[in-house]
Design a protein that fits this description.
Arc Repressor Mutant, subunit A, 2 strands, 5 helices
């Protein structure tokens, strides 16, 4: 997945977290879509397993991805992510994306 771009302005795990979060929030990774395995992310970013694991763990803690021990890492639905963080109610995920000017 070449859509991840690092900015060089923070520790590597934070750059990886920001790059993956940006791909998720911009819609490059579809809701429920499977993320690349940590090993693939390690090769792409030139990072250690622990660095990639920390970035993905941060994203999981924020609710942007969910881990399934046997199946892999998946992008969470944005509605699950924004629930409780946003005053919008009764809005679909495409509507939420439009509200934040993100192309679905």
């Amino acid at each position: 997945m070449n859509e991840f771009v690092l900015d060089g302005e923070a520790p590597l795990h934070a750059q990886i977290r920001r790059a993956v979060a940006g791909a998720i929030l911009s819609g490059k990774i579809s809701p429920g879509g499977r993320m690349p395995p940590e090993a693939d992310l390690m090769r792409q970013f030139g990072a250690s397993r622990m660095t990639v694991h920390r970035a993905i763990s941060d994203l999981a803690g924020e609710g942007l991805v969910r881990r399934n021990r046997r199946a892999g890492i998946f992008r969470a639905r944005l509605m699950d992510y924004w629930q409780g963080r946003c005053p919008l109610t009764g809005i679909s995920e495409p509507g939420l994306l439009r509200a934040f000017h993100i192309k679905p």
